[in-house]
Design goal:
25% of the residues lie in helices and 25% in strands. It has one domain: Metallo-beta-lactamase, Chain A (4-Layer Sandwich). By secondary structure, the chain is of the alpha/beta class. The chain is built from ten helices and 15 strands. The structure holds zinc ion (2 copies). One zinc ion binds next to helix 3.
Length: 265
């Protein structure tokens, strides 16, 4: 059974620092592979406290879309858990070069526990068991950052991670299921804040026209403005089912008419 579980939906410094929302990242169980993307602060605790439990020792891979703390705070703890404290060399880590190069966020000794470490780059493609994913385009963010496109037999799932908006995102992330890190309610006044706002999410959804869109990774103004209601407005406006992720929300692909594969996993 293919599903996506939103372990945490926090997206900006205050939301993470005060844990207004959890910052545990997103767990993808697709095509028989278990992949945790962006394990921010609290990911290990949140996975283990999840009902049913998400067991990090069952992970096949961890992906960092980029090195910022809200995406990587628990990466070492999760990788140790994935490898039974380093006693069982297994699994894969995917991260941009600057997350494992100078001033790395993944300790070198922890990287040694993992069976394979692959660097993300524009146009790159990676395999985790039966699941293939690609990183179509380099994002506009203050560090090396990429979104993901997960390729299932019958559909693609795009995760547009942290970035400023630019039109090429629309072609890069065409998919049936579109997940968008919607940090900001309003466009940033300061262009150095490279994040998507609600109107950017609207443009992406309208340009891509997926079957379902999910907003996540919210900053404070988004949370105060009730993401559920904002998503409902987008649904009505664009005619595309748009969902605001909640902490612990499990999104079952089949329940939303997104059949991934026939394998009764
Ligand atoms: Zn972020
Ligand atoms: Zn970031």
């Amino acid at each position: 059974m293919d599903y996506i579980k939103f372990v945490g939906t926090a997206g900006a410094r205050f939301v993470v620092a005060r844990q207004v929302r959890a910052s545990g990242g997103t767990w993808y169980c697709l095509a028989g592979a278990n992949v945790l993307v962006d394990p921010g602060p609290g990911a290990l605790v949140k996975c283990l406290a999840s009902r049913p439990k998400l067991d990090p020792s069952k992970l096949d891979a961890v992906v960092l879309t980029h090195k910022h703390l809200d995406h990587s705070g628990d990466v070492n703890a999760i990788l140790e858990a994935m490898t039974d404290g380093g006693h069982r060399k297994r699994g894969a880590l995917f991260a941009p070069p600057d997350a494992i190069g100078d001033d790395p966020v993944v300790f070198k000794y922890v990287r040694d526990y993992v069976e394979r470490v692959e660097e993300l780059r524009e146009g790159g493609s990676h395999q985790v068991g039966e699941l293939r994913f690609s990183t179509p385009i380099r994002h506009q963010h203050s560090v090396d950052a990429y979104g993901l496109k997960l390729h299932l037999p019958d559909l693609d799932i795009s995760l547009v991670a942290d970035t400023a908006f630019f039109p090429e995102l629309i072609e890069a992330y065409r998919a049936e299921l579109l997940i968008i890190n919607t940090v900001l309610l309003e466009p940033p006044r300061n262009p150095s804040i490279q994040h998507l706002c609600l109107n950017d999410a609207r443009q992406l959804i309208d340009g891509i026209r997926p079957k379902v869109a999910i907003l996540t990774h919210f900053g404070m103004a988004m949370i105060r403005s009730r993401p559920r209601e904002l998503a409902q407005q987008l649904t009505e406006e664009l005619g595309i089912e748009t969902i605001a992720a909640r902490d612990g929300m499990k999104f079952d692909l089949a329940e939303h008419g997104l059949t991934a594969d026939d394998d009764p996993e």
